[in-house]
Structure formats: structure tokens, C-alpha cells
Amino acid sequence: MSEIPEGHVLIEVTIDEDGNYKEEIVGHGPNSSCTTEDDDKLLQDLFDDLGEDDDWGKTKEYYDKSKVKTTQKPYTDTPFKDTPTAIEEEQKADLGFGV
Amino acid sequence: MSHWRSGKLQLKCSLSILKRALISIAPEWESHIVDDKEGFLELYSYQGNKKGSDYHLIIPGKGDPSRQAAPGFSYSGLGIRKQKDGSWIIDVDPAGLSKDAYNVVGKVNAFVAAEKIKKKASSQGNRLVSDITEGGKRKILMTAPVGPKYKIHA
After folding, report:
1. Facing residues of A5 across strands?
2. Half-sphere exposure of residue B23: CA atoms within 13 angstroms, side-chain side
3. Which end of chain B is more exposed for a tag (fewer CB within 10 A), N or C?
4. Closest CA to B141 of A18, A2, A44, A35
5. Is B23's Cβ below 8 Å from some Cβ in A?
6. CB–CB of A40/B150 below 8 Å?
7. Over 80: is that where the pLDDT of A66 sits?
8. Do A56 and B37 touch (CB under 8 A)?
9. How many Cα neighbours within 13 Å face the side chain of A99?
């Protein structure tokens, strides 16, 4: 097995035939904390939101047009519009508006 | 006669992952899978009896009056419907399915878990060391950077 890099941990995820999974830290690289408490927290940080939905498919309710919000933010001009470019500054200066 | 079994998937995921999971179980199902992101597909059982009409994905069985049955399915097909909380339910009559495909709910669960774990790991900059299946168990090994709060500071 290759060496665990500095500041890294080696994680083993086991998935059984029914899809039950278990994560475990099975090795620590140099300079990474190896307390059980930190291991648990780290695994929580890494995998806590695994069950969150990342789906484009929504429920029927989502597609119920009566419930879809139709409000839309007004289109705004690009913020660059108000910031004069270097060329515009030069042009201003040429026209006597510059400092 | 149908012997429906229903199983809830442990993890929420996209329809495309579910589709890939089913194809990984039986590649011959690919051309028979029908999906509908709005969830209005109908699932049938024996003699064209309708099991429901709120499915996001179906694989038709011989009881479907308008579609060709997928290999291995008897009269009842397989349907996946979404619950309000975003979780998926699989309805299936596994009677005619092969030994490999019989535990279809468990196999889909396992595929989804592996895909999500690998995707999550990749997004966090983890490096895959190995991914092996032994005796029905899949083991994924990866190295992960720990971040400052888990580092030992001298």
C-alpha cells in the first residue's frame, strides 16, 4: 500500500450487498491528528451531507405551475458600465475633464 | 398474481444514477428503461392491472399493455417513485428475476452509495487508492487531506 501523504488520512468505506455503508479512518499520515474524537469529527465533515438530494428530478408538487413563483429579479446592467476604463479616462483627460 | 416488494433507498440521488445502477445490474435492461422527470409513468402487473401512475422510472414487465417487457421480468415490472421528502421507493416483483438481479433494491442502494461516496470524495480533493469487491462487499480506499483543525501543530 502506498504511503499516506503528510496531513492526510486513509479512509476505508465498506458497502455491503444491501447498500449499508460504513466509513472508517484506517491510517494517518504525518502531522494529522489520530485521536478517535478527531477521526469521528473528520468523517462527519467529509460524509455528513451524503444523503442530501442532488437531483434534477423533482416531485409532482414542484412541477405544479400554480405553485411556481413567477417573480424574477430585474435585469441589472453590468457593474463594469459605471467603472471607466483606462481608455475612457484617457479620453476624459484629452477632453479636459481629467485631473 | 403479483408479489410486490417495496424498498426505500437510503440515499437521495439523481434519476441518472438510478438508471446507471439498474444497467450495472443487468445491461440488457438499458433499452427498456423509461424515465420521466415529472413522475407520471404507469407501472403494470398481471393482466394489465395498474400498480400506480406516479413513477419517475419504470422497467416494463409482460403485464404492460403498451411496452415490450424487459428480459427477466414476469408480468410485473419495476417502478421507482419519489416521495415528498425526495427519497426514492422501488416497487418490484422479483419473481422472474435472475439470482444476480433478485436483490435489486439492495444492489441499487449499494451502487448509489458507492457513486455518491466517490463523487463526494472527488469534490473534496480526495485521492482514490483502490476500489475492490470481495465476497459481496465493496471496499473503497482513499486518502483525504485533513485541513488545519485536524493537523498536529508543534
Report:
1. none
2. 12
3. C
4. A2
5. no
6. no
7. no
8. yes
9. 0
* A4: Cβ contacts below 8 Å, ≥ 6 apart: A10, A27, A28, A29, B143
Q: Grid coordinates in use for B113?
A: 452509495
The per-residue pLDDT for A84 is: 57
Query: Cβ neighbours of residue B7 under 8 Å, at least 6 residues apart?
Result: B89, B90, B92, B105, B106, B109
On chain A, the residues whose CB falls within 8 A of the CB of B55 are none
- With an 8 Å Cβ cutoff, is A54 touching chain B? yes
Answer whether 0.80 is exceeded by the pTM: no
Q: Could you tell me if residue B102 is left (phi over 0), alpha (psi between -120 and 50 degrees) or otherwise beta?
A: alpha
Report d(CA B76, CA A43) in Å as an integer: 41
Q: How far apart are CA A55 and CA A19, in angstroms?
A: 19
Kindly report the number of other CB atoms within 10 A of residue A95's CB atom: 8
pLDDT band of residue A83 (cuts 50, 70, 90) is low
Q: Assess whether pLDDT exceeds 60 at residue A61.
A: no
Question: Phi and psi of B84, rounded to 5°?
Answer: -60, -30
DSSP code at position A51? T
The pair phi, psi for residue B100, each rounded to 5°, is -65, -35
Query: Which chain A residue has the Cα nearest residue B14?
Result: A55
Question: ipTM for the complex?
Answer: 0.81
Measured CA to CA, the distance from residue B40 to residue B43 in angstroms comes to: 10
Assigned C-alpha cell, B103: 436483490
Q: Which three cell numbers stand for residue A2?
A: 502506498
